[in-house]
Amino acid sequence: MAKVIDFQTDPSSYRHWSVACDGPIATLTMDVDEDGGLFDGYQLKLNSYDLGVDIELNDIVQRMRFEHPEVKVVVMQSGKDKVFCAGANIRMLGGSAHSHKVNFCKFTNETRNAYEAAEEESGQKYVAAIKGACAGGGYELALACNHLMLVDDATSSVSLPEVPLLAVLPGTGGLTRVTDKRMVRRDLADVFCATEEGVKGKRAVEWRLVDEVVPNSRFDEIVAERAAEFAAASDKATGEGITLGPLSRSIAEDGSVTYSTVEVAVDRAARTAVITLNGPEEDAPADIDALHAQGDQAYMLRLAREFEDAILHLRLNEMECGLWTLRTQGDPALLAAHEALLRDNADHWLANEIRHYWKRVLKRLDVTSRSLVTLVEHGSCFAGVLAELIWAADRSYMMEDEFDGDNRPIATITLTPDNFGTYPMGNGLTRLHTRFLATPEAVDAMQEQIGDAMEAEEAEEHGLVTMIMDDIDWDDEIRIILEERASFSPDAMTGMEANLRFAGPETMETRIFGRLTAWQNWIFNRPNAVGENGALQRYGSGIRGEYNMERV
Questions:
Q1: 45: buried, middle or exposed (CB in 10 Å: 19+, 13-18, 0-12)?
Q2: Cβ–Cβ under 8 Å, residues 142 and 172
Q3: What sign does the CA torsion over 344, 347, 353, 359 have?
Q4: Rounded CA gap, 32 and 35, in Å?
Q5: What's the pLDDT score for residue 497?
Q6: What does the alpha-carbon distance between residue 395 and residue 393 come to, in Å, rounded to a whole number?
Q7: How many angstroms separate the CA atoms of 418 and 410, rounded?
Q8: Average pLDDT rounded to a whole number, residues 267-293
């Protein structure tokens, strides 16, 4: 049985990172354990990383928001001499299956996006304190920070050497951030990305690759000064943090997973998974203080954590399950009340964090390379944030009228104010606006339906579902639809879905997850990179890769 990759961790288990908090400033030190790779066959030298290193970083970024709301500035630094980070481990990439490489890049991209957005969403500014070589994925690690400081000495530089050295692309948004975020001039960016040794000192500032260079003799002092300045200028809402404890989760032999609020039924023979999200069983807390007292057991936070873990688990551990069916069950009015408590207290740090967390979880779903079908059944709980699952899906089907022998409440969809801006996609639009790109006025008109429990006919009239069916057609039609979808080529489905899901504006996020992921996916299959004589296989041997020189 293949090793199960676990995305749950905690500070007591970290092997590669350490965190020190001092009031409003936290120091995050990367000191990768060479022998701590997720798999055998490679050493994580020079602060290079694999998925295990990034699982820890993802956990840190999450805990920084929930457990340390007092922190306003996070300084990211290296715990090793003469190297900040050498990027993704080349031996790991060279020996990994294609599917692992692509999923690894996707997860690292999501982690970079999470701390990059922390300043805007949570008031936590990440500062990269770069001493030594900062290469490839290491520079991408720094690029996602909000302020980059480079020591001015003979050995410290930033570089993206993937193209000349490895015949692949910087896989974690490097090209996109250089042009879109750092706004580096195109010709200079071209020189930079084709130069193995990178750029040092004042030229790195002149080319906009970093924000400032600092003399080696005063580097630590000036980094501390800058962090203090940023913290003093922050108006971040703070409070007493909560502890994120371990999730309640059990994994069965057949791959099915059970959480306290989420159930995942895996059918490996059919290559499908059914994900059921359960609505709340109790009333919403009386006020924000009562919510805070619940800590990580607050329903909306617990559901988000469990759903996210299910998404990540299925992505990496059940890769042949190409079709996910999304279901809910519960009382939609009760769910809407829990969501309303967060909305009414959006200026409270914890409510703000839970709302932004849901935004990130739904974005994980958007960029997951699985076919998504949502079933709006009787007894379901599609209101507010869970209604987003309908429009995140490639298709959705809704039960119409009563079903013989089914005494569950009639299927409904309930819009809340949060469906109109709280959970935008990577393109910057809501899922409703993305769905109705040609008729944005239809979305504006839907706000009149906020709070109404719309049954099938009304939901179809508004275009909220793909199709409605009565009890005569439901079982057979849904079976045929799911069997057909699961039979299509996974490659064609991934390409089609990724193109159709992100209508509208192109943003840095859509470029990273659309353009970059698609090209890297292709390059990772090419012999120039991964063939027996390709650059990834020959890296470190002193022999350059042999390339098929056709341009295609």
A1: middle
A2: no
A3: positive
A4: 9
A5: 93
A6: 5
A7: 23
A8: 97
197 close to 159: Cβ distance less than 8 angstroms: yes
Residue among 79, 86, 117, 77 nearest 214 (CA): 77
Helix (H, G, I), strand (E, B) or coil at 339: helix
Residues 6+ apart with CB under 8 A from 542: none
pLDDT at 1 over 60: no
Of 374, 448, 444, 452, which Cα lies nearest the Cα of 413? 452
Specify whether the CB–CB gap between 134 and 82 falls below 8 A.
no
Nearest 5 degrees, angle CA 391-CA 397-CA 398? Answer: 105
**C-alpha closest to that of 367 among 494, 505, 524:** 494
Residue type, 402: E
Intra-chain end-to-end CA distance of the chain, in Å = 39
Q: What is the pLDDT of residue 428?
A: 96
Who contacts 29 (Cβ-Cβ below 8 Å, separation ≥6)?
Answer: 17, 18, 19, 20, 77, 78, 79
Q: Name the token pair of 151.
A: 């020591």
Q: What pLDDT score does 517 carry?
A: 83
Please, where are the H alpha helices in 318-464? 332-344, 349-366, 388-392, 431-435, 440-446, 456-461
Question: What is the rounded CA–CA span in Å between residue 121 and residue 38?
Answer: 31
pTM (predicted TM-score): 0.97
DSSP SS3 for 546: coil
* pLDDT at position 470 over 80: yes
pLDDT of residue 521: 86
Q: At what angle do helices 299-317 and 332-344 cross, to 10 degrees?
A: 110
Q: What DSSP line would sit under 76-103, residue for residue? A: EEESSTTEEE-EE-HHHHHHS-HHHHHH
* Residues forming beta bridges with residue 41, ordered by sequence position: none
What's the chain's average pLDDT?
96
